[in-house]
Amino acid sequence: MGILLTIPGQGTLSDWEVEITPIRAQGAGGQNVNKVSSAVHLRFDIRRSSLPRPCKDRLLALNDQRISKDGVVVIKAQRFRSQEQNRADALERLEALIRSAARPAPRRRPTRPTAGARRRRLEEKVRRGRTKALRGPVKTDPADG
């Protein structure tokens, strides 16, 4: 059991936590693509991992299409022609995903509109109201008959 990834502040991921399977790459590419399994599927079960609980919770809460309902991250890497490069690419993408969930989002400080912004908003509302008031049916003078 070796260390596969080291994520600063979150610890390390061992090779038993990440399942990497070679698959055939899709798309055009001729004879090589049809015969050689150069693409890789990376599977990472968030719930079974050794990541800290808050990081797991943030990962599971992400709205990312790579994370299944069961909490498994599936990354398909097929950018490169070599399986080793695709394996490294998949691991980098997993690390980037974990890093994005590692830091909690900063707390939002509620703000208020400035006095000038409130004044301008109300002036614009009055101006729009006047414009719309002019849009009614045209009233004819009864003397014109």
Automatic annotation (TrEMBL):
Pfam families: RF-1. Residues 99-145 are annotated as: Disordered. GO terms for biological process: rescue of stalled ribosome. InterPro entries: Pep_chain_release_fac_I (IPR000352), Pep_chain_release_fac_I_sf (IPR045853). Residues 24-40 form the Prokaryotic-type class I peptide chain release factors domain. GO terms for molecular function: peptidyl-tRNA hydrolase activity; ribosome binding; translation release factor activity. SUPFAM superfamilies: Release factor. It comes from the Bacteria. Belongs to the prokaryotic/mitochondrial release factor family. This is Ribosome-associated protein. It comes from Ectothiorhodospira mobilis.
